[in-house]
Amino acid sequence: MNLFTTKEVTKFFQSYDVKCDEKLVEEWMNSLPARKNPSATVSEGDLYQFDGWYRLKGTAYEEGIDDQTKIARLLEEIDELKGKLKEVQREKNDLEDKLGIMPF
Questions:
Q1: Stretch 5-34: mean pLDDT
Q2: How far is residue 103's CA from residue 7's CA, in Å, rounded to a whole number?
Q3: Is 102 exposed, middle or buried (0-12, 13-18, 19+ CB in 10 A)?
Q4: Which of 10, 31, 45, 47 is the most exposed place for a label (fewest CB within 10 A)?
Q5: Which band of pLDDT confidence, cut at 50, 70 and 90, is reported for residue 37?
Q6: Please, is 68 exposed, middle or buried when counting C-beta atoms within 10 Å of its C-beta (0-12, 13-18, 19+)?
Q7: Where on the phi/psi map is residue 64: left (φ > 0), alpha (ψ -120 to 50), or beta?
Q8: 38 Cβ partners below 8 Å, 6+ apart?
């Protein structure tokens, strides 16, 4: 079984264009369950868990955040979605104008 250090794991993920640094990888390694020496090494099997952890990091669905942080992040996400909706509506209207389609 191969074991990897923080530096090796960071290089591995960066080789696949994952934007991470040693500090982020160490944070992830420390978050792994049942770790006796969290920052020492991880196994090859552990590497598969990074993707899920990384995708949720900084979102309302990140593990271990309090309710207030979760609500604040959800409100930010709602604002972003409202902005995207306005963009799509403008684009739709522009396309309708170009095609001569009357709005419903």
A1: 90
A2: 57
A3: exposed
A4: 45
A5: low
A6: exposed
A7: left
A8: 29, 30, 32
**Across-strand partners of 43?**
3
Indicate if the pLDDT at residue 55 is higher than 80.
yes
In angstroms, rounded to a whole number, what is the distance separating the alpha carbons of residues 40 and 30?
9
Question: Is pLDDT of 72 > 70?
Answer: yes
Q: At what angle do helices 22-31 and 47-56 cross, to 10 degrees?
A: 100
pTM of the predicted model as reported, rounded to 2 decimal places: 0.64
The alpha carbon of 10 is separated from its chain's Cα centroid by a whole number of angstroms, namely 16
58 has which bridge partners? none
Apex 47 CA angle, 38 and 14, nearest 5: 100
Q: Could you report how far apart the first and last alpha carbons of the chain are, in Å?
A: 63
Radius of gyration over every alpha carbon of the chain, rounded to an integer in angstroms: 21
Which residues does 73 contact at the CB level (< 8 Å), separation at least 6?
A: 58, 59, 60, 65
